[in-house]
Amino acid sequence: MLDLSMEYSAYYAERASERERARQVGWRDERAQLARFGQLARAIDHAAGAAFDVADIGCGLGDLLPFLRAAGFSRARYAGYDVLPGMVEAAAAHHRDPDAAFRPIRDIAEVAPADYCFASGIFNARNDHADEVWEEHVRVIVRAMVAKSRCAVAFNMLSTYSDEDRRDASLFYVDPGAMFAWCKRELTSDVALLHDYGHWDFTIVLRTGGAKS
Ligand SMILES: C[S@@+](CC[C@H](N)C(=O)[O-])C[C@H]1O[C@@H](n2cnc3c(N)ncnc32)[C@H](O)[C@@H]1O
């Protein structure tokens, strides 16, 4: 198991003085962050006013929560999890919402089951790990998200359909087709690959009603 808390603490400490919240958690700006949230929300089948549970893995400052509220999901119960205790504390202090909770975790096993499991931006910074190590890390987490989710899982990853000369060696890029095929083969037959939103990443949505055990 990778010690992500150690690995990420310097990375996010460097960004803590940024003025914009989205930049503090590593996005270029709020627009970029919201664009990813919009894709995750495509996984939600519940009606706007319905009650359901969301687990946000790698919640950062918890900004998916106000996004969901603004999208009309007024009764969604939100649980944000992050490997960095400082992130979780800052998120809890900022978001005063009776239906939200924030928790530091060391391992995905600590995440409670939910209707929807989301992860935005958590697979991008590879922390100097070799491809095989990071690929396995991603697979372990995605498998666990599927096991914990009653309705759907959605996560994003950087795409190899990006300009090669503008890629950052510290980030992890994946062939979206290969990721889609792995999800379809190993996890569930209901897979959507969303690569139509004008960014250098893609989003995968897995419907877990028919998940393979
Ligand atoms: C790029 S930030 C995005 C934060 C948030 N999802 C957002 O979009 O605003 C990634 C966050 O995920 C956390 N993280 C990365 N891998 C994680 C994991 N396996 N489990 C829990 N948190 C993780 C990091 O500590 C960081 O706070």
Order of helices and strands: HHHEHEHEEHEEHEE
Beta-strand residue fraction: 15-25%
CATH topology assignment: Rossmann fold
Based on CA atoms alone, the radius of gyration comes out at 16 Å
Q: Helix fraction?
A: 25-40%
The pLDDT mean sits at 95
Number of individual domains? 1
Number of beta-strand segments: 8
| Largest pleated sheet | 8 strands, mixed
Task: Tell the overall outline.
Answer: globular
* Ligands bound to this protein structure: S-adenosylmethionine
The N- and C-terminal alpha carbons lie at a distance of 22 Å
Helix/sheet category? alpha/beta
Which regions are unreliable across 5 or more consecutive residues at pLDDT < 50?
none
Task: Give the CATH class.
Answer: Alpha Beta
The helix count comes to 7
CATH level-two architecture: 3-Layer(aba) Sandwich
Instruction: Write out the CATH superfamily name.
Output: Vaccinia Virus protein VP39
